[in-house]
Amino acid sequence: MKDVIRRIGEITLQLARVVEKAVWEAPDFRMLEVAVVRGAQEAARQLLVTALEALDRQLMEQRDRRQLKCVNRQPRSLMTWVGEIQWERRYYQERPSGVRRFLLDEVLGLAPRQRYSPLVQEFGIQLCTQVPFAAAADWLERVSCGAVRLSAMALWADVQAAGARADEAAKAQREAVFERGEIPPGSRPAAAVDLEFDELLVRGRRRGPDGQKERIALMHALAYEGKATDARGRTVLKNRRVHVAVGEGTASIEEALAAFAAAWDWARVEQCTVGGDGAPWIRKVLEYLPQATYRLDPFHLKRALRRGLRHDPEAHRQLAAALAEGKPWPEVAAILDAARRRAQGDDRDRVQELKQYMKNHWDGIVADANVRRLGAIEGQNYHVLARRMKRRGASWSEGGARHLARLLAARANGELERYARPVWQRRQAPPVVSTPQGRLFGQRLSRSDVEDVAQWLRVRIPALYGPHADREWVQALRHLAGLSVA
């Protein structure tokens, strides 16, 4: 234990020397800052190794010697936020099973062959949800002053593992609700919950029969309790929840509904509105929520109006006014018929397509004072998914798209740490005695111990008792060397 105190004193002295050298040699503030940061990183690496070795020794002393035999020491390295560290920890063998264990790894939750620390891994995954993998690797190195150096492929592998955990959790949640019939844990009541669904296509890596790259369909589901205005005057969604899956099948819809049922108690939701672009798979949601009302997404309706009546501004104005006033379908159809008679060629065909489109989705178009206005899904498509996954030159495998999309949804829900933080099943390890305040590793220093360490400090740090003993920095060192006496 006295060795730990001495080691901390050495590290402190080394850091003081680094700062002194930087003060005299740094040509400008930038170089001074870099020198101090790198010196602090080196000190932090040494402190981490000292702490690991001390904890490993404590575990050895507290183990059950009848069950665990200490065999030898094995080296290990780990990339941490302050750089790579290397140390040795003890290797044990269970009696009588012969199972071999590293108690230090188990207590700290370090998985076998884990190459970098949980903090580095978590931050790297979070960064990859915002920028490409190569850019994330570059930013990690830059913000750590070169201490953290990871390849883009290493970050990609971490994202795949974290995304797989999120994917398994979503599938397990769906199976629990729709296959085993378990009651969802949602408990929040709401006067109204709005659900919006849309499909976002991202470029795949495989090429189809036509030689073009295939498109991967991401099913994006959005749930919220209405809209509000924040302090800046911006429109925000209240209690927003996001779910993303690959494909448009029934399983994707059930996954989304199971995820939303974990937040809301549907038995206490007074009103529910489902919105979409009119795709048949979105209407399947009404089979699960028969009390819900369907609305066609305003973005897609306006786009259809512009496409069908771009040649006839007057008909476009009349149709928009009729929809705003809540006119019945016969009056709306009459406006479209008149526009069709005036049109020629392709324009006539586009008007007919618009009429058929509006007729098929009239239940989601007709104005109703009791129906809530939606239209938030398109903006959420960009903020949640497209900004990261539809950048220039990006292409994805189906598995890679699924895993990253799961993490992007978790990030939007404020749950990314749940999957980005590495998880390893810890085994039962010997308990560690809690350290009272003012003690080091559960032991109180005796007077002779203090005198020993004090003598060592006088030899290694003579400034503590030399002619400069009254200076502030020396007093700070003496304070750092202060010890409790029994």
Give an overview of the whole structure.
Belongs to the UPF0236 family. This is ISLre2 family transposase. Pfam families: UPF0236. With 486 residues, the protein is of the alpha+beta class. The chain has 2 domains: 131 residues, no CATH class; 227 residues, no CATH class. It is built from 18 helices and 10 strands. The strands form 3 sheets. A 5-stranded mixed β-sheet has the order 8-5-4-9-10, sandwiched between helices. Strand 6 and strand 7 form a beta hairpin. Helix 1 packs antiparallel against helix 2 and helix 12 runs antiparallel to helix 13. The longest helix is centred in the first third of the chain and has 34 residues. The radius of gyration is 32 Å and the shape is elongated. The protein starts with a helix and ends in a 6-residue tail after the last helix. The relative contact order is 0.11. About 2% of the residues have low confidence.
Question: Summarize this, please?
Answer:
The chain has 486 residues and is an alpha+beta fold. It is 50% helix and 18% strand.
- Note the beta-strand portion: 15-25%
- Distance between the first and last residues' Cα: 15 Å
Task: Give the uncertain stretches in residue-range form.
Answer: 431-440
Portion of residues within helices: 40-55%
Strand order of the largest sheet: 8-5-4-9-10
Question: How many domains in all?
Answer: 2
Radius of gyration: 32 Å
Number of strands: 10
